[in-house]
Amino acid sequence: MIIAHNLGFPRIGRDRELKFALEDYWGGKLERSALEDCGRTLRHEHWQQQAEAGLDLLPVGDFHWYDQVLTQSLMLGAIPERFADAGEPDLDTLFHLARGTHPHKEGTFACEMTKWFDTNYHYLVPELHIEQTFSLQWTQLFDEVAEAQALGYRVKPVVIGPLTWLWLGKIKGADFDRLQLLERLLPVYQSILQRLAEQGIDWVQIDEPILALDLPSDWKAAFESSYSQLQRAPVKLLLATYFDSLDDNLGLACSLPVAGLHADLVRAPEQLPLLLDRLPAYKVLSLGVVNGRNVWRCDLEHALQLLTSAAERCEQLWVAPSCSLLHSPVNLGRESELDAELRSWLAFAEQKLQEVTLLAQALRTPDRSDVQQALADSVAVQQARTTSARVHNSTVAKRLQALTPEHSVRATPFTERAALQQEKLQLPLLPTTTIGSFPQTSHIRQQRKAWRQGKLDDASYNNAMRAEIAQVIAEQETLGLDVLVHGEAERNDMVEYFGEQLEGYAFTRFGWVQSYGSRCVKPPIIVGDVSRPQAMTVAWTRYAQSLSGKPVKGMLTGPVTLLMWSFPREDVSRETSALQLALAVRDEVVDLEAAGIGIIQIDEPAFREGLPLRRTAQPHYLDWAARAFRLSASGVDDRTQIHTHMCYSEFNDTLDAIAAMDADVITIETSRSDMQLLDAFADFAYPNAIGPGVYDIHSPRVPSQADMVKLLNKAQRVIPLERLWVNPDCGLKTRNWPETRAALQAMVTAARQLRSKH
Ligand code: GLN
Ligand code: ZN
After folding, report:
1. Which residue in 233, 277, 288, 286 sits closest to 255, CA to CA?
2. Alpha-carbon torsion (624, 625, 628, 634), positive or negative
3. 44, 392, 407, 698: which is the annotated catalytic residue?
4. Which residues form the Cobalamin-independent methionine synthase MetE N-terminal domain (predicted)?
5. What pLDDT, in 10s, does the model give residues 369-389?
6. What's the CA gap between 204 and 237, in Å, rounded?
7. Predicted ipTM?
8. Is the whole-model pTM more than 0.90?
9. How far is ligand 2, taken at its centre, from the CA of residue 673, in Å?
10. Which atom of ligand 1 is nearest to the CA of 437?
11. Residue 399 to residues 123, 187, 198, 530, 536: CA-CA distances in angstroms?
12. CB–CB of 46/64 below 8 Å?
C-alpha cells in the first residue's frame, strides 16, 4: 500500500495574498469577514492544488493566521495573563498575542519570537508558568477539517505534539520543570484527538521535530509515557519528525505506540536501514524524500532507490516531502525571467507535490510511460547540472584547491596588530562608530525603484546615491563620530546587493517564503561556483572616504551570512560554497584596502544560524564557518582593521568560534539584555576589541546619554577600556533621521563623558 501525502503547504499564497490581507486588516482597511474570506479561498485553492497533484491524503491544520505554534498555544488555552482581559479568544486575540496590541491597554508586549529549529521561520514562544492550566479553546482545526470534508477531500489533520510544544515554551515567573505540565496538557490533546475521531478522521499527523535534537533522558522518558496515554484515542497517529536524523532517538521513535512514523531522508538518508530494521512491519513508514526546504528539483532516481529499498521491507510506505513545504517558495510558473535551463532545475512547493505523487506512482506502476518519462527527465536534469558551465567554474575550483592554512590567518597576533592599527588610525579611547546603514528614507527607495524600472538612468541614480553618501558623511562629521560609514543607501538588502554582483547567483521575482506573521523573505539562489567579476563596493566607499579626514569603514556582508540567507546548492557542501563566497569577499576586502580604506567591517549576523541541530555536528560547522570568515578577512596588511558585526542574542555556545574569527573588533547586540550578554564574552575572556551595542535600534525610543553611560560603565567593568568601542546595536536603516541624530548625539556625548575621566 503506497500513499502520497504532504506534511503542510505554504499558507501565504502564490501572490502573498495572506500577507496583504493581514496587513490591510491590521491597518483597518479590510473587514474581518474579508480577511476570513481570503483565508478560506487560500485553503480551498491549496487543497485543490494538492488533490489535483494526486496526493492521497491532504494536510489540514497547516493554515495559520500568524504562526503554527501560536495557533497550537491558543488551542491549548495557553494565553498569557496580560491578554486574559482582552475579550473572548478570537482571531483578534491571536493577533494581540502576536503583535503586542491590546483592545484597552497601552504598552502590552507581544509574545517573544524565535527561530523554528534551524530554519529562517520564526515562531511565537509559548509562555509557561508554574500554575499553567490548559483547556481546549480554539476550534479552528475542527472547523477546517469540516470545511475540507465538506469539499470531499480525504484529510489528515496536523498538530504540534505535546512534547515539542512544551520544549519550545519558555518559563515565565518562578522556575520549574516544564515536564510537570504534561499531566495537565495531555488530557487536552486527548480531547483534540477524540473530537477529530468524532469528525470521522482516521489519521492525525502529530509533529514532534524535537526528536531530531539531543534530548535529555527525562524528555525521552516523557515521550514514552505521553504516547502510551495518547494512543488510547480512537485515531491513528503519524508521528512526524524532520530537520535532522533521529539518531539516538531512533529506537525510541520506532517503539512509541503510534501507528506511523515520518522521517526526513533528505537531511539524513543514512537513517533508512536502521529505520527499516527497527520499525515494526505493521507500522506506516513515511519517508520524506523531496526536500521541503530548498528550491532544486528532486533527483527522482535517487529518491526512488531509497523508496524501493524501503518498499521491499515495509508493508505500508508513504511518500512525502521531507518537512512541511512552508519553507519553500510556492509557484515557479511565474518566474518568466529565469532562463529555461535554470527553470528546468527548480521545483517550488507546487512542483514538489508533483514529485511526491510521481514517486508514489513509480512505486505502484514502475513501467507506466509517464513514470518512465519523468524519471528520464529527472536524470537529464541532474546530468545537465553536473556538467553545466554555469555551475562549475574551474578557476574557482583551482583557487580553492590552492588554499593553504596561511590564507586564513592574519600575519600577526591581535595584540601586535592592534598596536600597529592604533599607530595608523590614532583613534581616541572608546571610539564611536555605527553598524553601517543610515535611514533608508522613502526618497532613497523611490530613486532605486525608478532606476530599476528604467525611469532613472545610471548616471542620475549614481548621483542621487552619492548625494545621500555626502549627506551621511556630513551628518557624522557634525555628530563627531570617530569612525564613519557611507550609510548603505545603495543597498536594498545586505545579501541581494552582493548576490546580484556575484557570478553563481540567481534571483527569483516571486520566490517568497514566510519568515513570520505577514513577513516574507525572498532568498537568492546559489546556482553554481561563486566568484566576483569586479569590485562591488569600492567606488562608493572611496567616494565616502574622499569627503572626510576621518576613517570611513568599508562595509561588506560576510561569507557565512551570504550563504545562510540564500538557497544553497545541494551538489556541493555548505562549506565549499562558504569558502567560495569567502574568496569573493576577500577580493573585495583587498580592493578596499588598496583604495585607501583602513577599516573594513564584514557583517556576520547569520553566523549562529547555520549551527547544526545536533551537538556532534556543531564543531565541524563552527570550524569551517570561522575559517570562511578568516579567509575573507586575512588578505590585508596588519594595519588594516577588520570589524565584524553580529546581532542575535545567543552567543554562549559559539564563543570559541567567534574568538576564532579573530576580527580586530566585533560589534554585538546587547542593549536589550542590559549588557548581560557581554558577561559571556568577559567570562570567556574574549581577547579582541568589542563594541557592545549601547542602544536598541529596533525601538523608536531615543535613549538618553545617562542610559548609555550606565551601560558603558557596566561594559567597562568586564572589558578593558582599551578594547571597548561605542556603537548602537545594529544598522539604522529602519529609523528616521530625527531619532537617529538624537540618539547618536547622546551616544557620542556619553562616550566623551567617560573618555574625559581617563
Ligand atoms: N551593516 C548592516 C547594517 O547596518 C548590518 C545589518 C545586520 O546586522 N543585519 O544595516
Ligand atoms: Zn545587526
Report:
1. 277
2. negative
3. 698
4. 4-313
5. 999 999 999 999 999 999 999
6. 5
7. 0.99
8. yes
9. 15
10. 4
11. 41, 60, 64, 11, 20
12. no
